[in-house]
C-alpha cells in the first residue's frame, strides 16, 4: 500500500493557508455585519461572556476543506469522496441557515429543533441510500477484537448510517462555544480518522481528512483563547457530518466513541445540564 504523502501534505497545507490568509477578512466582515454568537440560557454562566463574538466562521473551514481537497486530488474523485464532500457541504448549508435565523431573531437556537433534525435526517438518509445501494460499507471493524461486524440487512444498514450521521453532527455541534474546543477536538478526531481511512486503503478519504485537519488547524489560530470567532453550526454540523461519512465509508464507525470521546462527554454534559435547568430551574455547573 503506497501512501500518497505529497497529496496529503498538499491538501493539509493548502487548507491551512487558505483559512489563515482569509481569516482576518472574514472575521472583520462577520463583525461588521453583527453576526455575533448568542448563548443558550440553560448553559453555564461562564459561556455568557462569549455572547457577541462573531460566529459563522465555519464558512472558512468549508472553504479550506474544499480548496485543500481540490489541491490534493485535482478532479479525479471517487464516488465515496464526492458523497463525503456533498454531505459536508450539505450539513454546512443547513448550519448556515440555522446560524442566519439565530442572528436574525436574536436567539440561541436558530432553527426549531425538529426542523434542524429533519434536515439532518434527510441528508443522512440520502447518504444512507448511497451506502446501501453501492454496498460500500458491508462490514465494520470492531475495535480491540480484530474482527468485523457484517451488515447484511439493508434496512439495518440504512438506520445505522442515519443514526451515525445525525449523532456525530450533533455531537460536534455541541462542542462549539468554548475557545478552541470544537476545532481542536475535530482536528484530533480528523487526524485519527484519516489514518484509519488510509490503513483501509481509502486514500482519497485520507486526503480529504488531511484537508479537514489543515482547515481546523488554521481555524484554531483565530478560535484559541480569547476566541476571535466561532465556527457556528455552519462549521460544526459540517465537520460532524464529515467525520461520520469518513467513518462509514472506511468501515471504522465503531471507533467514533473512542476517538471522539470528548464529543460523547460533551453530549452527556449538555443533556444533564438541560434536564437540570428544565426540571429544577438551575444549572448543574455554573
Summarize the structure.
This protein is mainly α.
What does this structure look like?
The protein is an all-alpha fold. 69% of the residues lie in helices and 3% in strands. The protein has one domain. A two-stranded antiparallel ribbon has the order 1-2. Strand 1 (139-142) and strand 2 form a beta hairpin. It is globular and about 50 Å long.
Major beta sheet summary: 2 strands, antiparallel
Structural class based on helices, strands and sheet pairing: mainly alpha
Mean of residue pLDDT?
A: 86
Q: Give the termini distance in whole angstroms.
A: 51 Å
Share of residues in helices? 55-70%
How many structural domains? 1
Q: How would you write the strand order of the largest sheet? A: 1-2
The low-pLDDT segments are 41-48
N-to-C SSE string, H for helix and E for strand: HHHHEEHHHHHH
The number of distinct helices, counting runs of at least 4 residues, comes to 10
The proportion of residues in beta strands is under 5%
Which overall shape is indicated by the principal axes computed on the Cα atoms?
globular
Count every beta strand, where a strand is a DSSP E run of 2 or more residues.
2
Q: Radius of gyration, rounded?
A: 18 Å
